[in-house]
Amino acid sequence: MKSATPLKLCSIAFALLWTGGMLWSSGAIDRANVIILSICGALAGWAWYYAMRWVFQLIRLPPSNDHSVNSGTGQ
C-alpha cells in the first residue's frame, strides 16, 4: 500500500461524513440540496486531503514504509 492511500481513504470518509452531516442538519432533502451539498462535500474532502498532506510535510512525518530507520538487526 502506498503511503498516501490511507490519507486518501480518510479524505473520502471525511467527505462522506461531512456531506451526510450537512444533509441531516439541513432538514429539507430535495434534489438541489443533495447536488449542492455533494459538490461541497467533494470539495471539502479534496481540501482536507491537501491540508493534511501539508501538515504531515510540515511536521516531517515519515511515510509508514520508510526503511531508513535501523530496525535493530545490526546492519
Describe, in plain words, how this protein is organized in 3D.
- This protein has 75 residues and is mainly α.
- The chain has one domain (5-58).
- 67% of the residues lie in helices and 0% in strands.
- Helix 1 (5-26) packs antiparallel against helix 2 (31-58).
- The longest helix is centred in the middle third of the chain and has 28 residues, at 31-58.
Mean pLDDT: 83
Number of domains: 1
Q: Portion of residues in helices?
A: 55-70%
| Gap between N and C termini | 25 Å
Give the biggest beta sheet: none
Number of strands: 0
Count helical runs: 2
Main structural class:
mainly alpha
What would you call the shape?
elongated
Give the DSSP E fraction (strand runs of 2 or more residues).
under 5%
Topology order in helix (H) and strand (E) letters: HH
CA-based gyration radius: 18 Å
Q: How is this structure best summarized?
A:
The protein has 75 residues and is an all-alpha fold. 67% of the residues lie in helices and 0% in strands. The chain contains two helices and no strands.
Give the helices and strands, then pairings.
Layout: H1 5-26, H2 31-58
Which key terms come to mind for this protein?
2 helices; 75 residues; elongated; single chain; mainly alpha; 67% helix
